[in-house]
Design a protein that fits this description.
By secondary structure, the protein is mainly beta. The protein contains five helices and 25 strands. The two termini are 16 Å apart.
């Protein structure tokens, strides 16, 4: 019930499907019609192409949190009646999107076997027929499909997620993916899974929507110096075109700087990506206090996205180091899961190697080192100050 801001769960009032006629004016009164009922939650709804039925998932398990993830897919007529089970498979799934011909569905899911601390999400397709089994399009694509990187200025609720988008001919599926601290839109061949980039760059595509034939997109894009603006992308034309400049007036009064991207080698040869956010008017000949900022999860990632916290600390005169140690997402399955039985542990060594890397550059006061982090980063903060006395201050946030 304390699930990262989701609020209190009320098991006496499960989620159910309703339909409501869209009002033609603000004054028109409409009455919602309830389609499903019972003691279990229904969700993940998507319409059949002829709008006669709605597909949805429901888990008829009393305490599903004790079981491995499973998806049971049902359909029901928009006029009501009995639900009909379509299929069941052993994965938790979401982001269901129906193909243009109405015969297939694309969705995001992570395999539940073997049981791992981290299993990266994949793009799956499945025929909409009774007893169908999903096919993994991205089994050989070793990055996080349908995922992104973590900033602190995206909308906490609503937004609708990042569902797959079918091309008009049904031959490709566009979806965001996370790779090495970036989140961009990729196009995956619906037969082979081969990926080609739709967007590129040091940025995070936070969310997106397409016109009906998927030839054009609107993108919400964030960078370390842009909280989030809307961009228009014509897939034929190529480059996104910026539509909004929401924070230009505010940012004209601030001295925001791009962080420095750094790759360094950890104790066992692994390459670790980090960013160093430096104070405004940074002088490499001076000595600055350092804050090591550790992300939570531990299976999440910092990246090329706006983080007010880092800009604010830098504005106070600190260099902020924010690495993606082993266990972070966006670097492949093996890198993310390697800490399954070693947490905390070698990830701490990655963090210290990053601190050493910055001290070597000559502009850090090694007597003024601080460490902080939230959730899993709070846990690693606690661990850090039991392993070393090099930090003069530590702030452990919302940890265990």
């Amino acid at each position: 019930y304390r699930a990262n801001g989701a609020g209190y769960l009320d098991f006496n009032h499960p989620n159910h499907l309703w339909v409501v006629t869209a009002p033609k004016t603000g004054d028109e009164k409409v009455t919602p019609k309830q389609l499903t009922n019972g003691h279990f939650d229904d969700g993940g709804a998507f319409w059949a192409k002829d709008s006669a039925r709605i597909y949805f998932e429901s888990d008829y398990t009393d305490e599903p949190y004790y079981e491995l993830p499973r998806t049971d897919l049902y359909s029901i007529s928009v006029t009501g009646g009995e639900r009909v089970q379509l299929t069941s498979f052993d994965m938790g799934a979401g982001g269901f999107t129906i193909s243009p011909d109405g015969k297939q569905v694309a969705f995001i899911a992570s395999v539940s076997q073997p049981v791992r601390s981290y299993t990266q999400p994949d793009l799956w397709v499945m025929p909409l027929v009774s007893g169908a089994k999903p096919r993994n399009l991205t089994a050989d694509f070793d990055f996080d499909v349908g995922s992104g990187v973590g900033g602190d200025n995206t909308a906490p609720r609503a937004g609708g997620g990042s569902p797959p988008v079918w091309s008009a001919d049904g031959r490709s599926i566009d979806i965001v993916y996370a790779k090495e601290g970036k989140a961009n839109l990729g196009s995956f061949d619906a037969a082979s899974g081969k990926m080609s980039d739709v967007t590129t760059g040091n940025q995070a595509v936070v969310s997106y929507r397409a016109v009906p034939d998927a030839s054009k997109f609107v993108l919400l894009i964030s960078t370390p110096t842009r909280i989030g603006d809307l961009f228009w992308l014509d897939k034929v034309g190529g480059q996104p075109r910026q539509l909004t400049h929401i924070n230009d007036e505010l940012f004209s009064k601030l001295n925001l700087t791009e962080p420095e991207e750094i790759w360094y080698t950890s104790f066992d040869g692994k390459k670790i990506q980090t960013w160093a956010q430096k104070p405004p008017n940074f002088d490499p000949n001076k000595k600055y206090p350092l804050i090591l900022n550790i992300h939570g999860g531990p299976h999440s990632a910092y990246g090329f996205i706006f983080d007010h916290e880092f800009q604010w600390m830098a504005a106070k005169g600190y260099v902020v180091l924010y690495p993606n140690p082993r266990g972070s997402t966006s670097y492949g399955q093996e890198f993310g899961n390697i800490i399954q039985h070693k947490y905390p542990g070698d990830d701490y060594k990655d963090l210290m190697a990053g601190v050493d890397e910055l001290i070597k550059r000559g502009y850090i006061d090694d007597k003024k080192l601080g460490v902080t982090g939230g959730s899993g980063g709070g846990l690693l903060t606690n661990w850090t100050i039991t392993q070393t006395t090099r930090f003069a201050a530590a702030v452990s946030q919302r940890d265990i």
